[in-house]
Design a protein that fits this description.
The structure holds 2 protein chains of 2 kinds.
Chain A: H1 12-18, E1 20-30, E2 67-68, H2 69-81, E3 85-86, E4 93-96, E5 106-109, E6 116-126, E7 135-149, E8 153-157, E9 169-173, E10 180-186, H3 196-214, E11 226-235, E12 246-251, H4 254-273, E13 281-286, E14 291-297, E15 307-308, H5 319-327, H6 333-344, H7 348-356, H8 360-368, H9 373-381, H10 383-391, H11 402-413, H12 419-430, H13 436-443, H14 451-464, H15 466-473, H16 480-490, H17 497-507
Parallel strand pairs in A: 12-13
Antiparallel strand pairs in A: 1-10, 1-11, 3-6, 4-5, 4-15, 6-7, 7-10, 8-9, 11-12, 13-14
Helix pairs in contact in A: 1-4, 3-4, 8-9, 8-11, 9-10, 11-12, 12-13, 14-16, 14-17, 16-17
Chain B: H1 6-15, H2 22-40, E1 63-64, H3 74-78, E2 84-85, E3 88-92
Helix pairs in contact in B: 1-2
The chains are: A alpha+beta, B alpha+beta.
Chain lengths: 511, 99
């Protein structure tokens, strides 16, 4: 049933000129509670399989769910931060389906009575036209935010590449089953045009930032605590009715959100232009190829037979309590960004670059670990961004911590490392060689600051090139560069270039 | 005359993962119809003043504090499973029904 041959893509510029995109985003966020949604099982990531389970989350007969108070508080705070209305009364519902990721044969969710409705999130995107750093704000309307529980994790064994098709059997771990999950669903996002991929990414970035600011989730996409489904449909003109959409599942990095929208834009445009129709279906995102393939068709309406969950009584948030939570909300990410920008003395353009790279929190943590803001910014947006790009991952996924970056910065500030050596240290940390100090020791990296050793190298370089030495002695100070270069080469970059220059000039009587 | 069609019976059977043969598809339409008719008698009552009820208890906001409580060990969790492997429940392959 699954066709995985690559499909035609229309050139992006051409697709944008011919079609108007409409986006829809469904984001699932695992809440950071210490226990599960309906039972007291531990939620710590990475434990041995099926070691954080109990009769309730395994769906054993006779077990009963009891709602986690902190989870309700968290979702109400999320709703308030998104400007949603909070329902005065709502119920859970059973979403019935047979699939081994839910041992109960239903997922406890919310259906026609979500706890939060009608909110919005303003996102800013870099327009890349007009003057550098010019930005445009889009208001993404939120349809609903509801609470549910996460499912177990399946491992497909046999067949090719661990995918479900062709697998011989599956292995299921229920540690994740029952972890509190909130689902945030947007209304159709219109009017983004060519910026659709960037708006999608900016929205998920902003949502992640908001969750972090509220402290309700660690929102680590690489660990699956924030997952995104991307819906896209195209139409010829904004006045046309909405086209048929595809739903691309589990797009799990910021970069992929942008790529998936772009890919679907080109794919659907090619189909429509060729006179084919877009099939309403679930599509699978392939990180390696940056493409989607057809999954389950959604032509037939799904029949989940939702009904009110009899084992959980309704949730009726007390309006006074809701107002208390509203009053206690932290400053919005936009306000917080403004404060950070002022504290770091960054320009608008620099701040936009940090936001787009998902580096604001990383720089903040690096500064908190003792690094000056400009140095922290330089390393995250420069060398580290380059590594992230090479590995096709988000900055936060690099195996280096802000504290380690701060250590590298400190080593540079103290003169123990120059930039070139610092880059090697970062390479070592990323390669798993340990903390910066360990890499410095392990690789024997340190600026040669012993003048006598440097002077020896300087004298050797001057002797090797008597013409240049003569020029410098004659006052052509600029010629010193060649000698400095030779010394740096001889010391394999481990010398302080400034000090070498001073010594060269001194030796030639120019200091 | 049955109000529940053969197609509806087939649909329900599929949703419930029940394999019904041709005779059963015919027979269950009538049986389900009898059940639905019996229950639909409740529609004869005047319920204009009765609010819809989904829960028998007049309670809201029953919660527990967010605290970890001991559950089952991996061994206990898997003890009732027909098959397991590497600490995980082993289940038959799933055909094209990725949720």
């Amino acid at each position: 049933m699954s066709v995985s041959t690559p499909e035609e893509l229309m050139d992006y510029e051409q697709a944008v000129a011919s079609f108007d995109p409409v986006l829809g985003l469904e984001v699932h966020v695992e809440l950071g509670t210490v226990s599960k949604m309906f039972c007291g099982c531990d939620t710590t990531f990475g434990a041995a399989p099926n070691s954080q389970v109990c009769p309730t989350c395994l769906g054993l007969p006779g077990s009963l769910p009891v709602l986690n108070a902190t989870a309700v508080e968290s979702i109400v705070r999320v709703g308030l931060a998104l400007g949603c209305d909070i329902a005065s009364w709502c119920r859970f519902a059973r979403k019935n389906y047979f699939y081994p990721d839910m041992p109960k044969n239903f997922q406890t969710s919310q259906y026609d009575e979500p706890i939060c409705t009608d909110g919005h999130l303003d996102v800013e995107v870099d327009t890349h036209d007009g003057p550098p750093g010019s930005r445009r704000t889009f208001r993404v309307e939120i349809e609903r935010v509801h609470m549910e529980e996460d499912t177990g994790k399946s491992l497909h064994v046999g067949g090719a590449t661990g995918r479900i098709h062709g697998a011989d059997y599956s292995l299921v771990d229920y540690n994740r089953a029952g972890i509190p999950l909130i689902e945030i669903v947007t209304k159709p996002v219109e009017g983004t045009g060519a910026l659709a991929p960037r708006v999608a990414r900016a929205y998920v970035t902003a949502l992640r930032e908001l969750m972090r600011t509220l402290g309700v989730s660690d929102v680590r996409m690489e660990q699956g605590s924030l997952r995104c489904d991307v819906n896209l449909s195209l139409r010829r003109s904004p006045s046309d009715p909405l086209g048929t959409r595809s739903e691309t599942k589990n797009v799990n990095s910021l970069r992929s959100v942008e790529r998936a929208v772009r890919h679907e834009f080109g794919r659907q445009a090619a189909r429509l232009t060729a006179g084919d129709r877009v099939v309403q279906e679930t599509r699978h995102w392939h990180e390696d190829t940056g493409t989607t393939t057809s999954g389950r068709s959604k032509e037939q309406a799904e029949d989940y037979r939702y009904f009110p969950e009899p084992d959980l009584v309704p949730v009726a948030p007390d309006p006074a309590w809701v107002e208390e939570l509203r009053a206690g909300l932290p400053a919005s990410p936009a306000v917080r960004r403004g404060e950070l920008q002022a504290a770091w003395g960054a320009s608008e353009q620099e701040m936009t670059a940090l936001v787009n790279a998902g580096a604001v929190d990383l720089v903040e943590s690096t500064v908190a670990a003792g690094a000056p803001a400009d140095a922290a910014r330089k390393w995250w947006l420069g060398e580290l961004a380059r590594h992230a790009n090479e590995r096709s991952v988000d900055l936060a996924e690099l195996p280096i911590t802000p504290a380690q970056v701060a250590q590298v910065v400190a080593l540079v500030e103290s003169g123990a490392l120059n930039d070139k050596l610092a880059r090697q240290v970062i390479e070592g940390v990323l390669a798993g060689e340990g903390d910066p100090d360990a890499v410095v020791t392990g690789r024997g990296l340190a600026v040669v600051s012993d003048d006598s050793a440097l002077l020896e190298a300087v004298d050797a370089a001057l002797a090797a090139d008597p013409d240049v030495a003569e020029k410098i002695r004659g006052g052509k100070v600029a010629a010193a560069g060649a000698v400095v270069g030779a010394v740096m080469k001889a010391t394999r970059g481990q010398a302080d270039a400034g000090r070498v220059r001073e010594l060269v000039l001194q030796r030639c009587g120019q200091a | 005359m049955s109000q529940i069609t053969r197609d509806e019976v087939a649909h329900l059977a599929r949703l419930a993962r029940l394999a019904l043969d041709e005779d059963e598809l015919d027979r269950f339409g009538g049986e389900l119809d009898a059940i639905v008719s019996a229950i639909s008698r409740i529609g004869d009552l005047d319920t204009a003043d009765v609010p819809p009820t989904s829960h028998a208890l007049p309670l809201t906001n029953v919660t527990r504090p967010d605290e970890v409580r001991p559950g089952l060990t991996q061994q206990q969790a898997l003890s009732g499973a027909p098959a397991h492997e590497d600490g995980r429940f082993r289940v038959p392959r799933i055909l094209g029904e990725e949720a």
